[in-house]
Amino acid sequence: MLRSLALASALVLLGVTSWGCDTDGDDGPSGSVTVMSQNLYLGGDIFEVTTATEAAQVPGIVGRVYGDALASDFAARAESIADAIQAAGPHLIGLQEVTTYRTQTPSDYLTGNTSVNATEVTVDFLAILLDALADRGLNYRIASNSQNADVEFPATTDGQTFFDVRYTDADVILARSDIQTSGAVEASFNQLVTVPVGGVDQTFVRGYQHVTATLDGFTFTFLNTHLEVGGAAAIAQQIQAAELIGVIQNIDGPIAFTGDINSAADGSTTNSYAQLTGNLTDPGVGTGNTCCQATDLRNASSSLTTRIDFVMHRDFDSASNYDVVLDDPASRVTSGGELLWASDHAGAVATLEY
């Protein structure tokens, strides 16, 4: 009996859900679930392409942005992200900007036949991260993979040879092996932003996803999202937040929420944070900032100035151990003799008690 109690105590300390006294008196299971939110960062400023006012400008800009993305060395960055996951031990992870780059040579934009998409995968963030987790003996699976933007542009690095770069963005939910998930819902927002790129309109898709999760008899919904940026797109972001609130209100039972909402917790940017916290509890008030490091990730001192990445919840009893991760210079990785931050965003981790 003493051995069993000691084991149960150890599991609680490790953040593993255990059966305990039901303090609410509803005879249901009690325990905790740890969840994490992390934006992986696509590696460059994709919105640079919107500065092209004519088609001839697009290939040079795309070539530069793609070069920045390769130089950000996600394979190295994934090692630091996997270390943070190993240290936190989350049952569920909400990832944003899970990027796949594909290329095609020569560019079919030169022939005018743009019906064939680039298929040669050059960087697959999800595969790289899953390999890094497996190398650490961590068993995570894909519970939901929600595709967002999928755009392709011609590129050049020398003005002479041209190739196509295809950028695919996704939000992904990873589940640890000891938690069951089902009923994945993956949806794009109705309100999307369309911008001209070299005189041609391009729509950038964003959305949300959720799964039903069960841990030791306790069932809840895990929801992950990435809202539009602020600035000129602030109104679109707030409309997306309102749409997301409608989704939340139509879900029964407890909700664990993760996401990059691009809205500062201090109210200095948009109203989306205030909108969402009218329906969800933010247990991380007062914790560190999560955005943003320099575009090339090579800044020596952290430049995080706003808090836009969150773990929130509805109808959990409480939350504890809220932490901002990957915000410490010690978490940087070496690439080509230089130190890189793991992402331009820090992550957030919290344990939710039920």
Tell me what you see in this structure:
The structure is a single chain. The protein has 354 residues and is of the alpha+beta class. The protein has helices spanning 2-13, 58-71, 74-88, 125-135, 234-249, 272-277, and strands spanning 32-39, 92-104, 120-124, 140-155, 163-176, 180-188, 193-197, 200-204, 207-215, 218-226, 255-260, 309-314, 318-325, 333-335, 338-340, 347-353. Strands 1, 2, 3, 4, 5, 13 and 16 form a seven-stranded mixed beta sheet that branches. Helix 5 (234-249) links the parallel strand 10 (218-226) and strand 11. Helix 3 crosses helix 4. It is globular.
Outline the biggest β-sheet. 7 strands, mixed
| Average residue pLDDT | 92
Helix-strand makeup class = alpha+beta
Beta-strand percentage range: 35-45%
**What is the number of beta strands?**
16
Short account of what is shown:
With 354 residues, this protein is α+β, with helices and mostly antiparallel strands. The chain has helices at 2-13, 58-71, 74-88, 125-135, 234-249, 272-277; strands at residues 32-39, 92-104, 120-124, 140-155, 163-176, 180-188, 193-197, 200-204, 207-215, 218-226, 255-260, 309-314, 318-325, 333-335, 338-340, 347-353. The radius of gyration is 21 Å and the shape is globular.
